[in-house]
Write a structure and sequence with these properties.
CATH architecture of the largest domain: Alpha-Beta Complex
Domain PurM-like N-terminal: 63-151
Number of domains: 2
Number of helices: 8
Helix content: 25-40%
Largest sheet: 7 strands, mixed
Protein name: Phosphoribosylformylglycinamidine synthase, synthetase subunit
Strand content: 15-25%
Structural class: alpha+beta
Shape: globular
Organism: Aquipluma nitroreducens
CATH superfamily of the largest domain: PurM-like C-terminal domain
CATH topology of the largest domain: Phosphoribosyl-aminoimidazole Synthetase, Chain A, domain 2
Distance between the termini: 56 Å
Strand order of the largest sheet: 7-9-6-10-8-11-12
InterPro entries: PRibForGlyAmidine_synth_PurL, PurM-like_C_dom, PurM-like_C_sf, PurM-like_N, PurM-like_N_sf
Number of strands: 12
Domain PurM-like C-terminal: 191-327
Length: 345
C-alpha cells in the first residue's frame, strides 16, 4: 500500500508584517538568480516576435517556430520540485497549468505533453507515493485541458554520497498556432495601453520567490490553485484573442505580478503605472504566485468592448493601470525607470 506523506506546512501569511518597504523587496529580488534579468537563461530583454521573419530555420528563444509545411508551432519546457513529496498530484497539475497558461497567452493551442520524473528514491516508501501521485496529476490535467500525454518516463536514483536531492518533474509541451496573424506576444506595445489582470488575487505568498528568497522561508504550502478555474481561463483567452481585444498577454508567474509586468516592459523599455487591490495585502498582490491569473494589455479604443465582454462572462478581473513611457509607478509611488533595471550589454 502506498503511504502518503502527511507532513503539515506551518507557514501562514500572518507571520509576515503587512506593512513592508516594497522598494526594498523589489531591489532585493532583482538579485534573486531565478528573477534577475542578468541570468543568462532569463533573457527578458529579447525583442518582440517578428512573425513575418520566421522560417523553418528559425531558432527563436520564445520557442515559436515554423515547420517545413508552414505550420507554426510552439514548444516549452517546465520543471517543478516544490512539494512533490507532500502533494505530488496537485504539484504536477500546477506545473501543467503553468505550461498551458504560457501557451494560451501566445494564442497557441496545446496539443501534447511529455514528462520525466527524476530523483526518486526507490528505496523510500514515499518514492512510490510520489510516482503514483504525479501520474494521476498528469493524467487528470491532460484530460481537463484536452491534451495528449505522449510519453511518461521515471528515473529512480539516489546517491547517498551527494545527500538528498529534491524529486523533480520535468514536462515539455507542444502547441500549434492556428493563425499567425492573431499571435499575441508578451511585450507591452504602446504607451497608454490599459492593463488588466484576469483572475482572482489572494492573500497568498506560498512557495513564492518573495517568501523563499526575501524572507528565507522555504517551508510553505503550494500556492492557491484550482484546475477548473485554469480550464475556464484557457477558454476565455481563446475568445479574447479571437475577438482581437488584447495587445499583449502574460501569465502571472515567477516573482508575481511585479516581475510579470517587468518582463513585459523590458523588450520595449516601457514602464507601468498600477494601483494595487485594497482588498489584498500589497506584498501578496505584487509578489504572490497564486495560480489562475493573466495580465493583458488593451488598446484604449477597445477598453469598453473588453470590459463589457468580461462582465458578460462574470469572471473576476481587475483594472491595474496603464503602460507608461518608461517610469514604474505603484500606488502613486515612483520606482524609477525600467531602463535602469535592464543590464547593460
Amino acid at each position: 500500500m502506498i503511504e502518503q506523506n502527511n507532513e503539515t506546512q506551518e507557514f501562514a501569511i500572518d507571520q509576515l508584517p503587512e506593512e513592508q518597504d516594497i522598494q526594498d523587496i523589489v531591489f532585493n529580488l532583482m538579485v534573486d538568480p531565478n528573477l534577475a534579468p542578468i541570468n543568462y537563461f532569463n533573457d527578458f530583454t529579447e525583442e518582440a516576435i517578428d512573425v513575418s521573419s520566421m522560417s523553418n530555420d528559425e531558432n527563436d528563444e520564445t520557442g515559436i517556430f515554423c515547420s517545413e509545411n508552414g505550420q507554426m508551432m510552439a514548444i516549452s519546457t517546465h520543471a517543478l520540485h516544490h512539494h512533490l513529496d507532500a502533494d505530488p498530484q496537485q504539484a504536477t497539475e500546477i506545473l501543467i497549468a503553468r505550461a498551458v497558461r504560457k501557451m494560451i497567452c501566445f494564442g497557441a493551442i496545446p496539443e501534447a505533453i511529455s514528462s520525466f520524473l527524476y530523483h526518486i528514491n526507490i528505496g523510500d516508501p514515499n518514492g512510490q507515493f510520489i510516482a503514483a501521485g504525479a501520474k494521476k496529476g498528469l493524467e487528470n490535467a491532460c484530460k481537463k485541458f484536452g491534451i495528449k500525454l505522449t510519453d511518461r518516463k521515471i528515473r529512480f536514483d539516489y546517491f547517498s554520497a551527494h545527500g538528498p536531492v529534491y524529486p523533480t518533474i520535468i514536462i515539455s509541451i507542444m502547441a500549434s498556432i492556428p493563425d499567425k496573424d492573431k499571435l499575441v506576444t508578451h511585450s507591452f506595445k504602446n504607451k497608454g495601453n490599459n492593463l488588466f489582470m484576469i483572475g482572482k488575487s489572494y492573500d497568498d505568498v506560498n512557495s513564492s520567490e518573495y517568501l523563499e528568497f526575501y524572507h528565507e522561508i522555504s517551508d510553505s504550502s503550494l500556492p492557491a490553485f484550482d484546475l477548473d478555474t485554469e480550464v475556464k481561463l484557457h477558454d476565455i483567452m481563446k475568445m479574447l484573442i479571437e475577438a482581437g481585444y488584447i495587445t499583449s498577454a502574460n501569465p502571472v508567474s515567477k516573482g508575481g505580478l511585479f516581475f510579470t509586468l517587468l518582463r513585459a516592459g523590458m523588450p520595449s523599455e516601457l514602464g507601468f503605472d498600477i494601483t494595487t487591490d485594497a482588498e489584498v495585502r500589497r506584498d501578496a498582490f505584487l509578489f504572490g504566485e497564486a495560480m489562475g491569473r493573466i495580465v493583458v494589455g488593451v488598446d484604449p479604443k477597445k477598453v469598453d468592448e473588453f470590459v463589457d465582454f468580461m462582465c458578460s462572462l462574470k469572471v473576476p478581473f481587475f483594472a491595474l493601470g496603464h503602460v507608461t513611457k518608461g517610469e514604474i509607478r505603484i500606488d502613486d509611488e515612483s520606482f524609477g525607470y525600467i531602463d535602469k533595471m535592464i543590464p547593460a550589454n
